[in-house]
């Protein structure tokens, strides 16, 4: 069985853009032409590949096909660059990682590697407990995740630990925890989380005070810098990477509410076992560079 490249391209772009209409715009075709190509591919493979919802998403069979297509594109790019003797050809890496990694250690640790290897990044930012799902669904070819177990056909390598501390501004502590960081005070004081998927704060409060999610007010502020600034300016309190805190804790601008109970999150680099030589080399570089900033061992 030979896959029609026009059909597979149409399928891939539908999933990437989330709709037949946007895929048509990107490929300079009409939506009916995109639909016809996807249906022909589904007929060839004997499986539904796209859940026609808003946004469109891949079925289980579609996820497996998308994984294959992304890996094949990498291998093809490497081969063409080698045949053309183009040592300066960029390597496009579609990866998923958490906002805290992106906002703290990722570029300081890896910028030199990314520049030297001529990598073009196509990043998706997601909660560290959910980046794995993007690799599994075929929407990424690599990810940074808290999941230690590799999925079938992939490898998982330890990068190190990111340490978090529960902090608040001095003014917020004066307003909300004047009598101490107690269960009753925690029921009234607003938490600052990234999104509703972010369980760092809720897990801590459940463990420390037995407070379930929803038992206290919460802000949702996505992004490492906005999240940190919301806490720094007194909107609430929350878990912040220790890498961001040295100056503000030393100056007394912010206070550690649980100095005896930091939270360590282990991070792992996931990628396919069979990959292009350049991607394999890049993975080795990442695994070597990350522990220079992240805490080690796990």
From TrEMBL:
Q: What is this protein called?
A: ArgP/LysG family DNA-binding transcriptional regulator
As one GO molecular function, the record gives:
DNA-binding transcription factor activity
A Pfam family this chain is assigned to: HTH_1
Q: Species lineage, top-down?
A: Bacteria, Pseudomonadati, Pseudomonadota, Gammaproteobacteria, Pseudomonadales
Matching InterPro entries: ArgP, LTTR, LysR_HTH_N, LysR_subst-bd, WH-like_DNA-bd_sf, WH_DNA-bd_sf
Q: Which UniProt keywords apply?
A: DNA-binding, Transcription, Transcription regulation
Q: Does the keyword DNA-binding apply?
A: yes
**Coiled-coil annotated residue ranges, if any:** none
Highest taxon of the source? Bacteria
